[in-house]
Write a structure and sequence with these properties.
By secondary structure, this protein is α/β, with parallel strands linked by helices. A five-stranded parallel sheet has the order 2-1-3-4-5. Strands 10-9-8-12-11 form a five-stranded antiparallel sheet. It has a three-stranded antiparallel sheet with strand order 13-14-15, with no helix packed on it. Strand 14 and strand 15 form a beta hairpin. The longest helix is centred in the N-terminal third of the chain and has 17 residues. The protein is globular.
Length: 236
Amino acid sequence: MNILICDDDSLICDQIKTLCKNFYAEHNISQPDIYIFNSGEEMLASDLTPDIVYLDVQMSGINGITAGSALLKSHPSAIIIIVTSFPEYLDDAMRFHVFRYISKPIETKRFMRNLEDAIAEYNSKGGSINVRCKGINYTIPVKDIIMIEVNPHCRNLTIYTLNDSYTTTQTLTSLKAMLPTGSFYQCHRCYIVNMNYILSYTTSKIYLRNDFCADIALRKYNNFYNHYSAYLISLR
């Protein structure tokens, strides 16, 4: 997950970054990639994919309303949280469908609550991935993927969905990069699972919908447990 912070006040940027890192640490979730920008122009010039964006309104150069509108045109799934001292901009912000509005000075409990909501929203999205199977390109909705399994003897892998399966020579690493980290977890060098479809698990196996089963690497069990627990908390 990429979290972008755009504010011309470096103290606010540092505060938001610290709060984000604290939230993930408290919930035992792997830290996201956090990027700081001091202007809307700098943020829009970046080639990063924005997942959650903390955006100030009044900045030198283009303001946050203009920057946020432009960002959503190129990245419509971005979750934008406005952070500002000027409530009179709220109506303008709501016109381009911001996710939340946080007032300065930032109140920690409210910030944490809104971040938890943003993560849940991020988990509920997902979009789609493009996969090439036997010379044919398929677009697969991420929400339909139950798990991905590497077939080590055949040098390929299979993507299992709710209604179908797709075998491809694409690597697990390349597919993992396309998936939202909030809801997918690599529990073994040969498996990635969609935590939304987990029915039960032991210290060595994950049992999923449609009678699928994935191995858990012994060294990954504790990390898996923490990720899955945090995922369930984000759905409340």
